[in-house]
Design goal:
This protein is of the alpha+beta class. It has one domain: 3-Layer(aba) Sandwich (Protein Transport Mog1p, Chain A). Helix content is 25%, strand content 25%. It contains seven helices and eleven strands. A hairpin with a 4-residue loop joins strand 5 and strand 6. The longest helix is centred in the last third of the chain and has 17 residues. The radius of gyration is 16 Å and the shape is globular.
Length: 230
């Protein structure tokens, strides 16, 4: 079963995300533990994806790097981190350093579980939690490639809102409290914000597409973890 998903996630924790984002001037291998760097990104508090149906906003103190945004009729991508760090100390309070990614695609028939995500990524699922906004899982490996000093362990989850599947991922520095239970709670807050601020749009085309899938699980994981997305 795991081998079936190898082609879907081979580049998830390699340079694929960062090479893709580097074309638009995103995080790359920057250290999220330091500020004052040159070439600071443009930070925004809110971003709309998927024709405005999905609104992404970070918890207090966390902003979206505008250069990471990608949006289409059926999905999109955004990355967020500390406003204070990304702005070189000019915006936002000092908060725990972290990198959060949000990936949006057409909704499948069912939502991939944390176990599904771990299997697709070929890593161990250390723990999972059913929270108010989504189910999240702590992945054993892969996070070490997110940014300089990031921990291998990281959190992932997915949920459906309206016609969209939303995947969220949290990376944090080694030794950060966000590697533990606080990280799961953080993703729950991010997901709750998305649910509360996004609107539902009926889409028969998305439903027809889901019904025509030969391998529903592999297909939905493929949409959630498209190449160049994290």
């Amino acid at each position: 079963m795991i081998g079936r998903y190898q082609t879907l996630c081979a580049a998830l924790f390699s340079a694929a995300f960062f090479s893709g984002c580097a074309e638009s001037g995103a995080f790359g291998q920057m250290s999220l533990l330091q500020n004052g760097a040159s070439g600071l990104p443009t930070v925004i508090s809110t971003a709309e994806l998927a024709r405005g149906d999905i609104t992404v906003t970070g918890p207090d103190g966390y902003c979206i790097d505008q250069t990471t945004l990608r949006s289409s009729r059926s999905g999109g991508f955004a990355a967020m981190a500390s406003c204070n760090i990304m702005s070189g100390g000019t915006e936002g309070a000092i908060v725990e350093p972290a990198l959060v990614t949000v990936t949006v695609s057409a909704a499948p028939d069912t939502v991939p579980s944390p176990a599904d995500l771990a299997a697709a990524l070929q890593t161990d699922l250390l723990q999972s939690r059913e929270l108010s906004a989504l189910a999240v899982g702590q992945m054993a490996t892969g996070g070490e490639n997110a940014f300089a000093g990031s921990d291998a362990k990281h959190w992932r989850g997915a949920f459906v809102t309206g016609d969209y599947l939303v995947g969220v991922t949290l990376y944090a520095p080694q030794g950060s409290p966000l590697i533990g239970a606080q990280g799961a709670a953080f993703l729950n807050t991010v997901s709750s914000n998305i649910r509360a601020k996004s609107r539902s749009r009926s889409s028969s085309a998305s439903a027809e597409q889901s019904q025509s899938q030969v391998d529903p699980l592999a297909a939905r994981l493929g949409r959630l973890f498209a190449r160049r997305d994290l």
